Amino acid sequence: MSKLGIIAGLGSLPVSIAQAARESGRPVYVMRLAGFEEPALLEFPGETIGIGQLGRIAKRLKEEKCEELVLAGIVKRPNFSSIKLDLRGASLLPKVVSAARKGDDALLRVILDYFEKQGFRVVGAEEAASDLKMTMGLVAGPAPDETQLLDMRKAAHIASEIGRLDIGQGCVVVDGLVLAVEAQEGTDGMLARLNDLDPAIKGTAANRKGVLVKRPKPIQERRIDLPTIGPATIRSAAAAGLAGIGLEESGALLVGRDKIEALCAEHGVFVYGFPAGWD
């Protein structure tokens, strides 16, 4: 079993991938990106390296005999004028800056293409840790009713449309009304905005209504940046008075499934997998 290279940002996703590899007996080597180091990754073999050191990242992963590579975790878009670049990073900078103007997906494709040309097989998080992949149907919490399924389907359509424009991956619909769409603030920021809305159009802890949907952008490279939820997402959805969360089957990742199930039971919030064909 070949060693897995992980280029890691913040959050529990890269930690879950490293843990899954270790449990399966697969060695890993973690490149922790400077400024985005997840403390839990310090227990795994690896090193911290600058985000602009693309040549050194590839060199070290080859020295560690990593044939497969996964990119995972939260990395905020850097100020390109201030990051330190090695020769390879500097040569790619014009292409990276140009792609960044087109959107996140274009930027990520440039990075992925670079590592593939270096001879690595880039895999998605769901391939590196298959138990994270979203399944079809009810995963946790109470089953959604007909109204909630209708909200879910509408939110799935809206999420697909904003994804087509490379805006975001999420949408909230309550009783047929679109209350929020996700942009650069992320899912938690979007859900926090719901707290400022008129209580008459949103749910409460005593009367949960509406659904958050997250799905991949139609244009996106699915090996990078699949929608991911964890316990914090359940807490945020519950605090916003939502009835549940809909995720596209095989198009999202669940991190901390046991905690997700416990929180859904505690708050009366569901997690449900809808078919990829919804549009």
From TrEMBL:
Residue ranges constituting the LpxI C-terminal domain according to the UniProt record: 137-272
Domain (LpxI N-terminal) ranges: 3-132
Domain of life: Bacteria
Cited Pfam families: LpxI_C (PF06230), LpxI_N (PF17930)
Residues that span the membrane, as ranges: none
Coiled-coil residue windows: none
Protein's name in the database: DUF1009 domain-containing protein
Organism of this sequence: Henriciella mobilis
Lineage, broadest ranks: Bacteria, Pseudomonadati, Pseudomonadota, Alphaproteobacteria, Hyphomonadales
